[in-house]
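== Sequence, structure tokens ==
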Amino acid sequence: MLRTPSLAFCVWLLAAVQASVSVPAYAQAAQVPDTLKQRIAACTSCHGEHGEGGHDGFNPRLAGKPERYLYQQMLDFRDGRREYPLMEYVLHPLSDAYMREIAHYFATQHVQYRQRHPPILTQALLDRGQQLVRKGDPSLRIPACQACHGKRLTGAQPDIPGLLGLPFSYISAQLESWRNGTRTARAPDCMRAIAVRLRPRDIPAVSAWFATQAVPHQDVPAPGDALRQRLPMKCGSVERP
């Protein structure tokens, strides 16, 4: 006949099992500090400690970009307007307030640009890139890049990013993303309208031209009011109070 174990025996058995299981040291780690540096570790692991850009030639610089622009890009990743699984995963659980704090941190960082090594392309292709940046292409209804991003191409407050100092791979990937619809913005989506008008060779041309340019000493975004009033086309990402 089976007998029910006594309470004393059960207590002894539980104590014996617990004593036989050693807890590894890593499971007893100290509590993670609640600091901004710790909370943005997922960002800095790819984009650099101060947002200076990654070492892989793809992850872009965040330092010094307009704060509202950075915040809007995080919203776009979180809410499905931009598609990149890693960024979507990192940003999905974050609140608006948290993302604003992150945007403010990177917008206030001013660190030296990394030296880039763009691919070697023909002079004709680089000339085409310069044409698109400085003059656009009226026959394709493409305005000059500097018409929106500023004559110095360092962007403008509060929504327009600078384009200098970005890796060739990143710029070309973003233009392709706008062309195929995996990156979008608030309507009217001016960058998508421009990207779909570009010829296939125009993407490496303009990307390489940007990647070969020196970054001016004063690389901060220009005051935005005057530039916003004369944009060559309607753009939903900047037409907000």
The domain at 34-114 is CATH 1.10.760.10 (Cytochrome Bc1 Complex; Chain D, domain 2). Residues 7-20 form the longest helix (14 residues).
